[in-house]
Amino acid sequence: MNRPPTLAAKIVMYAVLVGMTLFALYPIWFAILASGRAGDRLYTFNLAGMFVPTEWTFENYRTLLFETPFLTWIKNSLFVASLTSIASVSLGTSGGFAFSRFRFRGREAGLILFLAIQAFPGILALVPIAQILSAFGLYRNHWGLIMAYMSGQLVFATWMLKGYFDTIPIDLEEAGMIDGAGPIQSFVYIALPLARPMLATTALFGFMAGWGEFFLANILIPAPDAKKTVMVGMFQIANEVNIPWGQFAAGAVLVIIPILLVFLFLQRYLEAGLTMGGVKG
Amino acid sequence: MVGWSGRRKTLTILLFVAPTLIGLIIFSVFPLVLNIFISVTNRGKFHPNPDCTQTIWKIVEPTCWLGKPPKGLAEPFGFQNPVYNNYVDLLGGLFGRSGLLALLRIVIALLPLLVAWYLNRRFDRQLTRPVSSWIVWLGGLVGAFLVGWLVSVPGAYNTLLESGNFIMVNVRTILYVLVCMPLFFTLGLIMALILNNHHVRGLTFFRVILIVPWAASTVAIMMSLVWQFFFREQGTINQLLEILDVKGPAYLNNNLWAFVIVVLVNLWYTYPFFMVSLLGGLQAIPQELYEAAEVDGASWWKQLTNITLPLLRPVALPIIVLSSLTTYKVDAVVWSLTRGGPIAGADKPGGTEFVMVHAYKQIFQTQAFGRMGAFAVILFVMLFAATLYSLRITRITKGAYE
Fold it and tell me: Are A135 and B63 in contact (CB under 8 A)?
């Protein structure tokens, strides 16, 4: 496939590329266009308006930000997602290190246990989790939601970090050991700094998982409005009787664009995360 | 690690593993165990509370722990009689005579494909293939259709659908995965092939742009709502059609259309994953092979089928298996687009109500927690087996078991 393509092949390839670019971007472009349109409708009878901005107003953004609980939802989501990610990474790191470096009885069993938990999707654990949370008064509470997210994220973080520690050569730590460092020192002073990029990536994956999650949040924090996360809140906006589509589109843009930027920025880490991501489901 | 052993070693390891392990036990293992207990009871809307005077519930049921058992007028839940009754409820239809017969018919219809696969394996070992592989596969496919027609697979499929909601959603979900995978793979492969061609300009630009849907998949629930708008009765597509004086249908109220749309939108989210992974695989193929093929005068198609595809196998197989698992567990996309609809009637799963959506709806609506517990346990066993299998393929744990 080294040979320069013929003209016809080239035309076909560019046509496919351009077509796929439109396919990939149009829904997001559509949301951006709709967010700048006055009125409560997502569509326009103006054909050109479906493809280029023929009118533009920040009215929807203003209403969304100042007349709905949108900012509170964002704040809730930020809180839940960051704490999930911080908690899962801090609980998972030492375990990941141990599973990568030490050989002990029960290690294989532990790894299998991880997988078994991975295989169990969060939605199916809803009933027992809701029981536990309501027993401790954590139902309708952000801390409860964070605990529910932990069940998936902790395994994911441990597994990711174990995989990364596996790729760090052990030589440095052995050199440290010769200089008298115990396993704890070699973990804190040698392995942890080396694993920094992966810690950040894992934390980010955890954050994005918490940011985009809907089902658990919808059941575990059904009310009041001020406690909802942004996904639940926006879903609710989109299912009202008179849907304020413009506001919805504005919200979608505000929620999706930052994630897009982060994601594109971290593209090179994707490859590493994707095999794990598959297990994560 | 050198030079340390005995009790100190055990203590150190415990220290390292403890935070993770305790977290896991609280957040993951305990819910799983509790779920197994729930799955053998008749817990639900009418029997929501445990009987905290019984020793077993005193131990496993968290609402009993604090000494303030939940009060309600309803009778507390108890064990099913027989205890596995929930499982019989869910799976019973499959193990009846008609269910097994229907399964058998479907298996028989798949036999020609198996034969094709076997023949291909045999031909591969010969120096020159008597028949090229795609002819064999085509033969297998035609054979499958013929046999399928003879044993009337559609009839068997309908029998299966009627033998219980659990089986119905499972069969539909598996069908959905089977439809999705070839599409995901083909589109991903086409894009990867183009992006791997150095004679195309602006590769980096396209590579970044084409990944956007993957990024959007982390907020799938919202992005799918935007997609849903395209297909509403008063949505974008129908508006465009109106300009041409065509009246479009309400796509999401039609079983077939709803299915197609769910496939299409999921294709949008998933092709970048296939594209990126297959591109990685393509770049790992040594160029000399193509140069040698070029010298031999092999056409583009020959190079694709004889070099690229076989060498992509180690990359393609794991991602197909992994993606099948995630597609099986599809939830947000479907929930936003159709909510599992079109509605099929009371107590019947809707047209696109796949496994996870069904589970969610059941927890929400019928609140038959005991039966949902059994549902979860069965799915857990299936998914765990599938995950183990996928790991055998990806060999992620290769280092773990040495």
Answer: yes
Sign of the CA dihedral with B182 first, then B188, B193, and B194 last: positive
Local structure of residue B15 (DSSP, 8 states): H
As a whole number, mean pLDDT of residues B148-167 equals 82
**What is the arithmetic mean of pLDDT over B9-31?**
85
For A219, name the nearest residue in chain B, comparing CA atoms only: B364
pLDDT tens digits, B77-117: 777 778 788 888 788 777 778 888 888 888 888 888 899 88
Say whether residue B12 is in contact with chain A using an 8 A CB cutoff. Answer: yes
Of A73, A85, A120, which to mutate for an interface test with B (greatest number of B Cβ within 10 Å)?
Answer: A120
Q: CATH classification of A69-237, choosing from 3.40.640.10, 1.10.760.10, 1.10.10.10, 1.10.3720.10? A: 1.10.3720.10
ipTM confidence score: 0.85
Cis preceding-peptide flag for B62 (omega within 30 of 0)? no
Looking at B31, B55, B84, the residue that finishes a domain is: B84
Q: Looking at chain B from residue 183 to 222, which residues have their Cβ under 8 Å from any Cβ of chain A? A: 190-191, 193-194, 196-200, 206, 208-216, 218-222
Residues of B in contact with A212 (CB under 8 A): 218-221, 332
Residue B61 domain-assigned (yes or no): yes
* Residue type, position B221, single letter: I
The model's pLDDT over A224-240, given as tens digits with 9 standing for 90+, comes to: 888 899 999 888 888 77
| Domain end position, chosen among B25, B57, B84 | B84
Angle at the Cα of A181 from the Cα atoms of A177 and A185, rounded to 5 degrees? 125
- Alpha-carbon distances, residue B352 vs A163, A213, A278, B363 (angstroms): 37, 21, 23, 17
Range of the domain at B389: 183-401
Cβ separation of A182 and B4 shorter than 8 Å?
A: yes
Structural domain count, chain B: 2
Tokens 């009885």 found at? A105
The ranges assigned to domains in chain A are 7-62, 69-237
Report d(CA A94, CA A79) in Å as an integer.
Answer: 24
The string of pLDDT tens digits covering residues A17-58 is 999 999 999 999 988 888 888 766 656 666 677 777 777 888
